[in-house]
Write a structure and sequence with these properties.
Length: about 350
């Protein structure tokens, strides 16, 4: 690049790309969004836009020639695309982390290798593979790839239900897992920079509705001992991956104990970290931009106890004409169409000493 202002290339055009672009601009960077969706909300907040499929070689070359840094806003970018870009410019987070997080079996085996607890699981590539699974307990059958917000997963109570679900999923490679009876779901949002610094935001507590995140409370109502364990586990994962950027980890806290197990890893900024826009001294988005551009990350501090409410589908209409104020910050993503189950925006409720929950 010839001018002094550097450009960050972002694969994916959703609201996470939108908020990353806003953070990049506040740090003096330009952004180029690459997305196959002409209605990508991130296009509105970026300096350059490339509308193309992820396997369009000429457009990928155009993308590389416009940018100084490359990152992603969601993990399901084809690995061939990431590899193609990686041969020409550094991509953060690194390709191995993206590849692991795209495949539930790779993700589980990675945790297992590190000695990090997960629920019991088994790879399912044929109906015969179901023969060795214990169906006396409730299970969940999930597609190994491309699952999010409850998509590509079915609750299983018997062998026949598993066979039916596997057939309904087109017999694509799946994973079957024991159902976890948990008392809390907790997220960590952790950043690592090229200098090896690792910082985790205060863990948050999540509540889902219809498999989609509904509310996040920060900080989570957990013991100091558990908080330390979450920090250690998160840092361990980032170090082993030689990770650069924000990594989000969803944990389950088992019922009747403070045992935690990893549910899911996302190599990107995350919905459960939106509270950081108002409740922390630095947002997850700025932290990610700092890391992927070679800047030093900042130690996060909790400024305010914060409750994040997702605006799903028609919920947005209750808020899109309301103004933000000191105790509620409203974010509307500007998506072109309201759909059931679609994330349309979020609200951060801030609880300071004068505010009662």
């Amino acid at each position: 690049m010839t001018n002094n202002v550097k450009t960050i290339g972002i694969f994916g055009g959703g609201q996470l790309g939108q908020m990353l672009s806003q953070a990049a601009a506040s740090l003096g960077f330009k952004t180029c969004i690459y997305s196959p969706d002409e209605n990508s909300p991130a296009f509105m907040n970026s300096d350059y836009q490339i509308l193309a499929e992820y396997d369009d070689i000429s457009k990928l070359d155009e993308f590389v020639n416009k940018i100084d840094f490359a990152t992603i806003e969601f993990e399901n970018i084809p690995i061939d695309t990431i590899q193609f870009i990686s041969n020409k410019i550094k991509v953060y987070p690194p390709i191995n982390a993206i590849e692991i997080s795209q495949d539930r079996i790779k993700e589980k085996n990675f945790c297992k290798k590190l000695g990090i607890k997960t629920n019991q699981f088994q790879n399912i590539e044929s109906i015969k593979d179901l023969d060795s699974w214990d169906f006396s307990k409730k299970s969940v059958l999930k597609t190994r790839m491309l699952g999010y917000d409850g998509k590509g997963q079915t609750l299983i109570n018997s062998y026949q239900e598993a066979v039916d679900a596997f057939n309904a999923m087109g017999q694509f490679p799946c994973i079957i897992e024991e159902f976890v009876y948990f008392s809390k779901e907790i997220s960590t949002i952790t950043a690592r920079d090229k200098f090896g610094s690792i910082f985790t935001f205060p863990p948050s507590e999540n509540v889902h509705k219809n498999h989609i995140l509904d509310v996040t409370e920060a900080p989570a109502n957990i013991s100091n001992e558990l908080e330390i364990k979450l920090y250690q586990t998160s840092a361990n994962i980032l170090e082993k991956l030689n990770y650069i950027g924000i990594l989000s980890i969803e944990f389950f806290m088992e019922k009747d104990s403070e045992e935690i197990l990893v549910n899911e890893i996302a190599p990107r900024v995350h919905n459960s970290g939106h509270w950081t826009l108002d409740g922390s001294n630095i947002s997850q988005f700025e932290q990610h931009i700092r890391a992927v551009t070679g800047m030093r990350i900042v130690e996060p501090e909790l400024l305010f106890k914060t409750r994040m409410l997702n605006l799903i589908g028609e919920d947005v209409h209750k808020w899109d004409t309301t103004d933000s104020n000191d105790i509620q910050k409203i974010y509307i993503y500007g998506k072109n169409e309201v759909k059931k189950g679609r994330k349309m925006g979020h609200v951060n409720f801030i609880y300071n000493e004068q505010t009662k929950k």
